[in-house]
């Protein structure tokens, strides 16, 4: 009871301050960072760079800017958006300094001489210096009760704990952090103390979004978390609160919501055989919601079938949910969720943006979203242009239907086979005298995309070896058109194959692959090499892989 009271009192106190000041994220000016590198020599230090990694209200969450340095060692950066309390990290010549918060102006003085000794010497001044000194003082104070990421993960991933037990444990840990925070503020009073309270609350509410993922959140708790309006634009708010709220509202539907969606929206669109299949699945889903232990492979297979095959219906239902939930928030808070939502994938984001744009309530947020949409449209046009430039060439490879060859030389195929052995035999014939690394991926897998975006240098290195990388895209919740566009967007000069549903399933089952990305190594003799471990392509240890391939 005390834990709940602590959290609620802090929430009410912050809400009171926010209401009193009629806070808005819109700043009267665009914040400015200025700096002086002491001891900078334009000839000796010509390779030194200044970078700012900034948290921003958009689907990318962070953006890195490289700031020019003049001959006197001075640099200056005006932030892209006129937003209050923005969060950024400063790096100079490969040395990463602390994270800072800026509302108006920050001035940095970096001593290059001491930096070269391995010492990080930096002085702050300007209108926001006092605020940052206070925040840094709190962060560098020993906190035996601080909620660390590992502690949070241990609580949320405890499979033996009930939902109620996880929630109670979170309340207990954040109450401990509140106690420390109150002691610190009592000993160090400051007009910026509210920022400490807000950071804790953002993490607290964000953890509850994760805790209740795919579960029904009590109405009273929903009202509480939706009423909260953070003011800072930092990791605690953009990631812990807003991004996790997007996952809760948009990326995941609860079982009850899925039942309603399947019954009311999907069922009327199906033909008779599929309707009968859905009815049988809904009966099992209803029993599961009532608490019966439905854990059969058949149930999960059917759940995956209806989710993947009708993914567009699912996304429409999820978008309706997000728009409804954000309508219960304040105008700025709801618009922040919409700005951050939609994901980084430009292909997936276009429908999301088109859906939420008419519902935006604040001019500044609408302007940001419209600008992001313009940039997305340019990227989409480039993708379409690349696909239109594809050409068909004669090939002896019997992999399947050749979709075309992209301008950089990457061939695209639809696999014609449904059995794994047929595919592997064909790949061996298509790439003779090559060791094969098969990268199994899908367009909605963030780790897959992240690795592919960084893989071009490694693929260029592999081109001079006997190792060939082949990208096999699973059809799980991916249509062929989406695969083509994603490959064109990635602009990766590699061999790409789209697998049909049957082949995708058989491949995962045959090699007991648990998710994406997965990697298989087939040597020159056509043998599957489970002893050669590959986690990714971009950071592939080529010497190790070559050594293991040649070992007996």
Structural class: alpha/beta
Q: Report mean pLDDT, rounded to a whole number.
A: 88
Largest sheet: 6 strands, mixed
Note the beta-strand portion.
15-25%
What's the assembly state of these chains?
Answer: single chain
**What is the tally of helical segments?**
21
In the sheet with the most strands, the strands line up as 9-10-13-12-11-14
Taken from the alpha-carbon principal axes, the silhouette is: globular
Q: List how many beta strands DSSP finds.
A: 14
Separation, N- and C-terminal Cα atoms: 64 Å
What low-confidence regions span 5 or more consecutive residues with pLDDT below 50? 1-20
**Rg of Cα set:** 27 Å
Descriptive tags:
single chain; 552 residues; four-stranded mixed beta sheet; 15% strand; alpha/beta; disordered N terminus
In short:
With 552 residues, the chain is α/β, with parallel strands linked by helices.
Written description of the protein model:
With 552 residues, the protein is an alpha/beta fold. The protein has 21 helices and 14 strands. The protein has helices at residues 2-21, 112-116, 129-140, 149-156, 163-187, 193-211, 219-227, 235-251, 255-266, 272-289, 297-309, 311-326, 331-340, 346-356, 363-388, 420-430, 446-453, 456-462, 480-490, 501-510, 542-550; strands spanning 32-38, 50-55, 62-67, 74-78, 86-92, 95-102, 105-111, 122-125, 400-405, 411-415, 435-441, 467-473, 495-498, 518-522. Strand 12, helix 19 and strand 13 form a beta-alpha-beta unit. Helix 1 (2-21) packs across helix 6 (193-211), helix 5 (163-187) runs antiparallel to helix 6 (193-211) and helix 9 packs antiparallel against helix 10.
């Amino acid at each position: 009871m005390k834990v709940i009271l602590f959290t609620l009192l802090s929430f009410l106190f912050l809400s009171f301050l926010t209401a009193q000041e009629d806070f808005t994220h819109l700043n009267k000016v665009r914040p400015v960072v200025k700096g002086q590198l002491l001891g900078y020599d334009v000839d000796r230090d010509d390779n030194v760079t200044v970078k700012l990694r900034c948290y921003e209200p958009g689907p990318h969450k962070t953006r890195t800017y490289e700031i020019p340095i003049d001959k006197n060692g001075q640099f200056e950066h005006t932030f892209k958006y006129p937003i209050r309390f923005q969060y950024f990290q400063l790096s100079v010549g490969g040395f990463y300094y602390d994270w800072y918060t800026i509302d108006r102006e920050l001035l940095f003085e970096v001593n290059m001489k001491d930096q070269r000794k391995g010492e990080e010497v930096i002085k702050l001044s300007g209108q926001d210096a006092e605020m940052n000194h206070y925040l840094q003082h709190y962060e560098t104070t020993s906190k035996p009760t601080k909620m660390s990421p590992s502690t949070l993960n241990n609580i949320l991933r405890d499979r033996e704990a009930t939902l109620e037990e996880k929630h109670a444990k979170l309340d207990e840990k954040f109450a401990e952090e509140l106690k420390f925070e109150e002691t610190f503020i009592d000993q160090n009073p400051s007009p910026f103390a509210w920022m400490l309270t807000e950071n804790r609350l953002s993490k607290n509410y964000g953890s509850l979004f994760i805790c209740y993922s795919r579960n029904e959140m009590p109405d009273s708790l929903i009202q509480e978390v939706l009423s909260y309006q953070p003011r800072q634009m930092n990791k605690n708010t953009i990631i812990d609160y807003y991004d996790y709220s997007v996952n809760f509202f948009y990326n995941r539907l609860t079982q009850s919501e899925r039942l309603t969606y399947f019954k009311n929206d999907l069922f009327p669109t199906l033909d008779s055989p599929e309707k009968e299949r859905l009815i049988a699945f809904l009966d099992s889903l209803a029993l599961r919601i009532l608490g019966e232990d439905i854990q059969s492979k058949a149930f999960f297979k059917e759940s995956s079938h209806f989710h993947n095959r009708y993914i567009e219906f699912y996304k429409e239902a999820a978008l309706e949910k997000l728009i409804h939930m954000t309508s219960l928030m304040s105008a700025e808070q709801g618009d922040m969720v919409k700005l951050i939502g939609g994901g980084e994938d430009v292909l997936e984001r276009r429908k999301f943006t088109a859906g939420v744009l008419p519902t935006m309530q604040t001019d500044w947020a609408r302007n940001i979203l419209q600008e992001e949409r313009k940039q997305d449209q340019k990227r989409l046009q480039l993708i379409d242009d690349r696909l239109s430039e594809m050409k068909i060439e004669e090939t002896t490879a019997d992999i399947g239907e050749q979709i075309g060859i992209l301008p950089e030389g990457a061939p695209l195929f639809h696999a014609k086979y449904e059995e794994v052995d047929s595919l592997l035999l064909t790949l061996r014939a298509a790439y003779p005298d090559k060791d094969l690394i098969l990268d199994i991926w899908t367009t909605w897998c963030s780790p897959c995309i992240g690795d592919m975006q960084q893989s071009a240098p490694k693929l260029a290195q592999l081109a001079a070896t006997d190792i060939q990388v082949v990208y096999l895209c699973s059809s799980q919740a991916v249509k062929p058109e989406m695969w083509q566009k994603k490959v064109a967007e990635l602009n990766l000069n590699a061999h790409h194959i789209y697998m049909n549903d049957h082949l995708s399933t058989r491949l995962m089952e045959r090699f007991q692959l648990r998710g994406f990305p997965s990697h298989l190594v087939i040597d020159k003799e056509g043998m599957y090499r489970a002893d050669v471990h590959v986690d990714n392509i971009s950071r592939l240890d080529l010497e190790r892989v070559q050594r293991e391939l040649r070992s007996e």
